[in-house]
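Problem 12. The chain below contains 68 residues. Write out its predicted structure in token notation.
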Amino acid sequence: MKIIVSGKRKEVTDGLTVAQLINSETNGRPRYVSVVTRKELLLEGGFNDVVLQDGDTVEFIYSGEEEC
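Solution.
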């Protein structure tokens, strides 16, 4: 299936969750991230539950806070 990630069209496997996408796009889950998909803002608690659908657009929003 095809989705758009940060403005770039990507071919991904069916059944891909937001958590799996984050891991593949960022080399592991960043400390702070929110995700917008299907015009919804997802917080970290829902990343494992949301399965991406063909045509979804995903944008990552990173917090400006630094890890100590």
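Discussion. The chain is about 15% helix and 30% strand. Students who got a different answer should revisit the alignment rule from Section 12.3.
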